[in-house]
From TrEMBL:
Classification via SMART domains: HELICc (SM00490)
Annotated keywords: ATP-binding, Helicase, Hydrolase, Nucleotide-binding, Nucleus, RNA-binding
Name of the protein described by the UniProt record: RNA helicase
PANTHER family xref list: ATP-DEPENDENT RNA HELICASE RHLE-RELATED, RNA HELICASE
Organism: Stegodyphus mimosarum (African social velvet spider)
Gene3D superfamilies: P-loop containing nucleotide triphosphate hydrolases (3.40.50.300)
């Protein structure tokens, strides 16, 4: 939504405003007549991220613009332990409510890991996807580039995959999400932009194609499935370079995960087809990079 449309909505003095820190600061600084001086409740969802140093300037500006006398609520599945970050939210006499002191995943989530050589990572992904026909699947990648490349790769192999990452326009991100929700696309390839705050009720499987660099992000990723009492499955790919990160995840959730069953000979049957698809995907990536350079 553009700033002008939002400004008109804010001029009607709504009772509830839902915003990202950056956009809220934009309106505080640029929208005539907009003020938060009458605010009574401040709620921060995914508070550990919002209170992170990446949002320091925005959070400080918002806190200076709102009354000291207010109710403040912080919510997160993985709340930070750093008291300094909580103090920055100007909490007075805080009460902490925890569902559990441990970082946990839900009981109905079946969690697996798959130990594979890095050079055959794409082949194993295709094999696993072939093994899950009809399922609605989210595949998490570490970077925007690998998200896009993996989407190209899977499309070249006939999968209905669609990417979701920060380098796409807002319209394309919303379009991708809508297609996945409507089940016209069965595979959503995404960065951690999709690991929090999205309610997609029908996700059957989460695949950590790239292992998360922060173990707490694992909980958010696999939390996209097995929601609201439903079952679900997660599979985490672990290469020879990911062992330490994987051990941190097991330590965090206090659980040893079983190995996802595969037969190497069956997987490697796909090698030639996947290698060919990789060439096409790399070509498409170069073409996309060329278009981006022209736009600049």
């Amino acid at each position: 939504m553009d700033m002008m449309t939002q400004s008109l909505a804010l001029s009607k003095k709504p009772h509830i405003i839902i915003a990202t820190p950056g956009r809220l600061v934009d309106h505080l600084e640029n929208t005539k007549g907009f003020s938060l001086r009458a605010l009574k409740f401040l709620i921060m969802d995914e508070a550990d991220r919002i209170l992170d140093m990446d949002f320091e300037q925005e959070v400080d500006k918002i806190l200076k613009a709102i009354p000291r006398e207010r109710n403040t609520y912080l919510y997160s599945a993985t709340m930070t332990q750093k008291v300094q970050k909580l103090q920055r939210a100007s909490l007075a006499n805080p009460v902490k409510v925890e569902v559990s002191k441990k970082y946990q995943t839900v009981e109905k989530l079946q969690q697996y890991y798959l130990f594979i050589p890095l050079k055959h990572k794409d082949v194993y992904l295709v094999h696993v996807l072939n093994d899950l026909p009809g399922d609605s699947i989210m595949v998490f990648c570490a970077t925007c580039a690998n998200t896009q490349r993996t989407a190209f790769l899977l499309r070249n192999l006939g999968f209905t995959a669609i990417p979701l990452h920060g380098k796409l326009s807002q319209a394309k991100r919303l379009g991708a999400l809508q297609k996945f929700k409507a089940k016209s696309r069965s595979i959503l390839i995404a960065t951690d932009v999709a690991s929090r705050g999205l309610d997609i009720p029908h996700v059957d499987v989460v695949i950590n194609f790239d292992i998360p660099s922060h173990s707490k992000d694992y909980i958010h990723r696999v939390g996209r499935t097995a929601r609201a009492g439903r079952g679900g499955k997660s599979i985490t790919f672990v290469t020879q370079y990911d062992v330490e990160l994987y051990q941190k995840i097991e330590s965090l959730i206090d659980k040893k995960l079983p190995l996802y069953p595969t037969v190497t000979e069956e997987v490697m049957v796909l090698l030639d087809r996947v290698t060919e698809a990789q060439l096409f995907a790399n070509k498409e990536m170069k073409e996309l990079e060329g278009k981006d350079k022209k736009r600049r």
